[in-house]
């Protein structure tokens, strides 16, 4: 095992934001704000430095809107790019390199409400909320859907730390009994 030094303790503190490019900013805002219940925190044009910093073609502009959940930890940056040449690529999928899915925790008592709201709003929802057991973790309830650009979004009700501890303790008891 390597020694812990001041240099190895230096690192990131938390997730600041994740940026995703969108085709229609208003449609994406409707999904994330009205559909998922996030709140809009900032809207601004991209900086004049953005193309050079991000290796984008010269002349690229864009509009950025940040949205955030109640926890105030991490934000989602929705960016509508205006590229000098058009790129109509498809969104990433699980199995592709790069981001394939966004996952948002929700309260167990609210997952059905959010599901019903997204269905009512006409979004692509893959299934009803489903409960499954995650090995060495415990029960989770989740469903997946797509945002207006086809990005896969998971809504998941996670067990409390106490439920996870009890679940693991039960597994340990079962292992000792074998």
Describe this structure in words.
There is one protein chain. This protein has 178 residues and is of the alpha/beta class. It is built from five helices and eight strands. It has helices at residues 6-9, 25-35, 50-54, 111-120, 161-176, and strands spanning 17-21, 39-45, 61-68, 75-82, 101-105, 130-134, 138-146, 152-157. The strands form two sheets. The chain has a four-stranded mixed beta sheet, with helices on one face. A hairpin with a 5-residue loop joins strand 7 and strand 8. The longest helix is centred in the C-terminal third of the chain and has 16 residues, at 161-176. It is globular and about 65 Å long.
Secondary structure topology:
Elements: H1 6-9, E1 17-21, H2 25-35, E2 39-45, H3 50-54, E3 61-68, E4 75-82, E5 101-105, H4 111-120, E6 130-134, E7 138-146, E8 152-157, H5 161-176
Parallel strand pairs: 1-4, 5-8
Antiparallel strand pairs: 2-3, 3-4, 6-7, 7-8
| Rg value | 20 Å
Portion in strands: 25-35%
- How far apart are the first and last residues' alpha carbons, in Å? 33 Å
Shape: globular
**Approximately how much helix is present in the residues?**
25-40%
Largest sheet: 4 strands, mixed
Which stretches are low in confidence, meaning pLDDT under 50 for 5 or more residues running? none
Mean pLDDT: 86
Counted by DSSP, the helix tally is: 5
SSE arrangement, N to C: HEHEHEEEHEEEH
Structural class: alpha/beta
Strand order of the largest sheet: 1-4-3-2
């Amino acid at each position: 095992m390597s020694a812990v030094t001041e240099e190895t303790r230096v690192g990131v503190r938390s997730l600041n934001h994740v940026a995703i490019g969108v085709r229609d900013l208003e449609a994406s805002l409707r999904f994330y704000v009205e559909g998922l219940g996030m709140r809009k925190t900032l809207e601004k044009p991209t900086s004049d430095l953005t193309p050079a910093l991000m290796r984008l073609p010269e002349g690229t502009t864009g509009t950025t809107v940040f949205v955030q959940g109640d926890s105030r930890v991490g934000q989602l940056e929705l960016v509508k790019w205006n590229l000098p040449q058009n790129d109509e690529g498809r969104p990433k999928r699980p199995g592709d390199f790069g981001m394939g899915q966004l996952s948002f925790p929700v309260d167990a008592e609210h997952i059905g409400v959010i599901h019903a709201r997204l269905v009512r709003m006409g979004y692509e929802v893959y299934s009803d909320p489903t409960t499954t057991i995650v090995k060495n973790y415990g029960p989770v309830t989740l469903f997946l859907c797509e945002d207006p650009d086809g990005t896969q979004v998971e809504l998941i009700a996670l067990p409390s730390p106490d439920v996870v501890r009890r679940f693991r303790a039960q597994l340990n008891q079962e292992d000792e009994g074998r």
